[in-house]
């Protein structure tokens, strides 16, 4: 006999013969309830366990995984914050260098204009006045 087949289970000889004192309706419901119960058990065979130990162990594993992910994200966040600080410092240094170069360029232009005036004194005269 195939114990996993619900039809074979209901046809098995495990059920006692019908009691003449019990109505035929009550007797016909007993195997149907057995069939429904057996089919429910068969449906549950492929499902994961839902007992307390399994749920707790799954929860513990999930918490461990999440904790590891949090630690990884914290380390990544610290690394990104450090990189951000370094880039901000570099940006400030470049701004200072830009201001310094701008000032140096302005000073060189002034010196150039002064040297032109010294070499060509008439270049200092406004051409509109001539």
TrEMBL record:
InterPro entries: bHLH11/121, bHLH_IRO3, HLH_DNA-bd_sf. Residues 1-36, 77-104 are annotated as: Disordered. Residues 42-90 form the Iron-related transcription factor 3 bHLH domain. Gene3D superfamilies: Helix-loop-helix DNA-binding domain (4.10.280.10). This is Transcription factor bHLH121. Pfam families: bHLH_IRO3 (PF23177). Keywords: DNA-binding, Nucleus, Transcription, Transcription regulation. The keyword Transcription applies. It comes from the Eukaryota. The gene is BHLH121_3. GO terms for cellular component: nucleus. GO terms for molecular function: DNA binding; DNA-binding transcription factor activity; protein dimerization activity. Its main location: nucleus.
């Amino acid at each position: 006999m195939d114990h996993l087949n619900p039809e074979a289970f209901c046809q098995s000889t495990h059920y006692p013969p019908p009691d003449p004192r019990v109505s035929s309706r009550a007797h016909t419901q007993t195997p149907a309830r057995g069939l429904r119960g057996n089919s429910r058990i068969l449906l549950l065979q492929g499902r994961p366990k839902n007992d307390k130990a399994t749920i707790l162990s799954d929860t513990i594993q999930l918490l461990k995984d999440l904790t590891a992910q949090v630690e990884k994200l914290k380390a990544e966040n610290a690394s990104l914050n450090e990189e951000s600080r370094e880039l901000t410092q570099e940006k400030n240094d470049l701004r200072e260098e830009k201001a310094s170069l701008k000032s140096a360029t302005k000073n060189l232009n002034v010196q150039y204009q002064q040297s032109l005036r010294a070499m060509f004194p008439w270049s200092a005269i406004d051409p509109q006045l001539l």
